[in-house]
Known about the structure:
The structure is a single chain. With 208 residues, this protein is an alpha+beta fold. It has one domain: Sandwich (Jelly Rolls). Helix 1 crosses helix 3. Helices cover 23% and strands 29% of the residues. The structure holds N-oxalylglycine and nickel (II) ion.
Amino acid sequence: MRFEEEQWIRLMDDLAENDYVTADQFIDDEMYTRIMNFFREKEENDQLTKAGIGSSGEFKVDSSVRGDFIYWLERDNDQKMETFFSLMDELVDALRKYCYLSLSGSEFHIAKYPAGSYYKKHLDQFNNRSNRMITVLLYLNENWKPGDGGELKIYGKDQNILVEPVARRLLLFKSDKIEHEVLVTRVPRYSLTGWLLHQPASFGFVLG
Ligand code: OGA
Ligand code: NI
């Protein structure tokens, strides 16, 4: 599609080397508009719900840890997001081809952080469920400027990095390696977040 093979290779190389990578202008205006129209529709229909922490067994809502509101995408139902999903298919193909990752399945949600909210330092894995391999973030804030806050802080090996959540910027990182935090946002902050899941070695075999 819009991303050339060479660009995929560069992205995958950086991810393999640094455990994270960013790419600006990852989506074009048309896709940006589609995603934002979808987002506004969900927002206006009150379909965003308070996000929690932990997986189903030990799920809880705790605003002192994270303050965002989310809507989980479903490929079959959310057909307005199909072009986004096919771009994610391309991403998965590139990760398989150039990073030799065994991936199977994914989960995506849109997220709105109201002014004053944040997400404390964490790893994107739960104790009882650790199959999240790659975290995918697509930022959607058209007029973001310094002082608006809501940067993603990456706790790096040698130094910490701040990623500004500007519209059309992609951020990928290894879910089990990168500790990160969403700094307090001063303005409503929009993003699309997802995880590419690990395919266990036994997948497809009947056990027992
Ligand atoms: C998360 C998360 C980061 C961001 O949802 O787990 O860390 O920049 N999001 O929105
Ligand atoms: Ni996270």
